[in-house]
Amino acid sequence: MSFLPTLPPETIENIIDILAQDDPDHSRLKTCSLVCQMFLELCRKHIFASITIDGQKLAVPKPTSAALVRLLSSTPEIAEHIRKLHWRMLVEEFEDRSLPGILEKITKLQSLAISWPREHRQWRKNSLRTAILYLLHLPTLVRLEMTENQDFVFADLIPCTNLREFQLDCTKPVEAEHTLPLTLPHPPLQLRHLFVGSECFTAMSMIGASLRPDGKPIFNLAVLSSITIRLWRHEDFEASRQLFQHCSKLTEIQLLLRSPPLTWMGIAKMLKPSIETLTHLHFEIGFQDETGTNDPLAGLVAELEEIRYQPNAVEKITIDVGAWSDSEFNQGDDWGLLDRVLTQSGWSKLERVSLKIYIWVCEREDDLEVTLKSLPQAQLPRLSSSPSIVFQFSIVDRSDGY
């Protein structure tokens, strides 16, 4: 690598930055890194910006923690380039005595995703706890994703002063004694986006009520602007009701509901604390109906009608409806009611409405796709011809692997 570039270093860096945007597997960057030492340093920041540790992944070579240990032991300067770490933890990694020291070489991590080995290790009692907390408490960390953890402790996040995005899936928090001082120098966490996945109803009910040693909430949900929640069971719906009570400045919500057993009944009242700041309502419905007589919108129209009568700032409404492969599809008045509700007064700022219907075409012997494509003309004429609302309608065939 004896080549000496003649272009200014800033120009070379800009070129490599642009190249990295369209090089997902880093193949071009790896080739460029062989040119000279300068190219190597500029390419490394992209090649090693995102690291995955997953000993179960079907890849050659496997992205194991042992591979990370070898890499950072031989070339420790690479650690300063790591911004994202996705870690699917294995039980045997808790026995690796060299791993904690290697993890503590990472100093500028921005995003951390941990898939915990569920019941095989306790969150508060394990050999990697100190190293994990080190990563959590880095001042550069802005995003955290926790999956499959059944004894997570919200209090461990108190020092995460710059955390802005928090994602939970199949995770259950537990109460634990605080080890922090009664007086803390920083305010509660100022989250901007919260994602709550399946099996997280306990987390939803606790996240707004969890307190620091000084009595202040761990999470200041009053500044939360965006939230995504999966509503699979009745416990999820009830827990989300408690969560929304703490949210007063939401601008965007994305709610995913399984029907049956659930309907949207009560969602308008749940959203009321933020109804004057919400600009985007995104509703996703996964339903199963063997009779073709149930409401495919799961009661959503009545809730939108209630929202219409409240002072609101809604600019965009997105509705995604997904039917199971063996479901029938009611094509009756429910769609027409949606058309009437969204084109009446009460939506002073509404600009866009998107309606997508997902079906499995290859597994059906009827002409459902053709029938559904006629919905805009047959049931949604006002939205289709509205001069003030941009209406987008589409049928998506899930049988093509979407």
Task: Explain briefly what this protein structure is.
The protein has 402 residues and is α/β, with parallel strands linked by helices. 27% of the residues lie in helices and 19% in strands.
**Mind describing the biggest β-sheet?**
12 strands, parallel
Mean pLDDT: 89
Secondary structure tally, helices:
14
Distance between the termini: 45 Å
The percentage of residues in β strands lies in 15-25%
Percent in helix: 25-40%
Low-confidence stretches: none
Q: H/E series, N to C?
A: HHHEHEHEHEEEHEHEHEHEHEHHHE
Characterize the overall form: globular
Sheet with most strands: strand arrangement: 1-2-3-4-5-6-7-8-9-10-11-12
Organism: Hebeloma cylindrosporum
Protein name: F-box domain-containing protein
Features:
single chain; 402 residues; alpha/beta; twelve-stranded parallel sheet; 14 helices
